Amino acid sequence: MATKTAENNNSSTAVSEKKNMTIDNASVDAKEMKNAPLHKFFVSALKDIYYAENAIVDALEKMQEAATTEELKDAFEDHQLQTKKHISRLEKIFKLIDEKPEKKECEAIKGIIKEGEEVIKSTEEGSMTRDAALIIAAQKVEHYEIATYGGLAQLAITMGHDKAADLLEKTLQEEEETDENLTDIAETFINFDAEQED
Ligand SMILES: [Fe+2]
Ligand SMILES: [Fe+2]
């Protein structure tokens, strides 16, 4: 009996030692993962797009106010709501990979948004030319996002962040739909009407 108890004690010690080792290995793995160059780049790119999405919310507000047609105003309003969803999805992604959501200033999106502001200054209020130009400015924003989300979704898959990859792909799909919708609006009537203006 005594031997059996000793054996039991030994085996339970062995189990708890093994458990501790597993926890140690897991924390070592997590530490290694966080130090991996690709993981660092992934996090930095997430911070970049997190900054960009926040800047886009403000830009879409101004573009909506400046647009001539109700169709374009509505499209900008809808995408502004979607953009707010993209921000909360990014916050979920940061959480999933155990990182803090932080913004990293993104010169590229600042430049693209500045171009949109110049479009507003250089076109006449109430004109269709303004809408034709605003659509192109907005599509430049979408293409920046499409390139970013497409690349980050692929990296997430490669690194085994499956849930993060799903969220990134969901946003990617919405950016692509927005881009197509803007093309449709331009080609249905805005570009033709703009061409008639003098
Ligand atoms: Fe977005
Ligand atoms: Fe977008």
Automatic annotation (TrEMBL):
It comes from the Bacteria. It comes from Chryseobacterium geocarposphaerae. Coiled coil: none annotated. This is Ferritin-like metal-binding protein YciE.
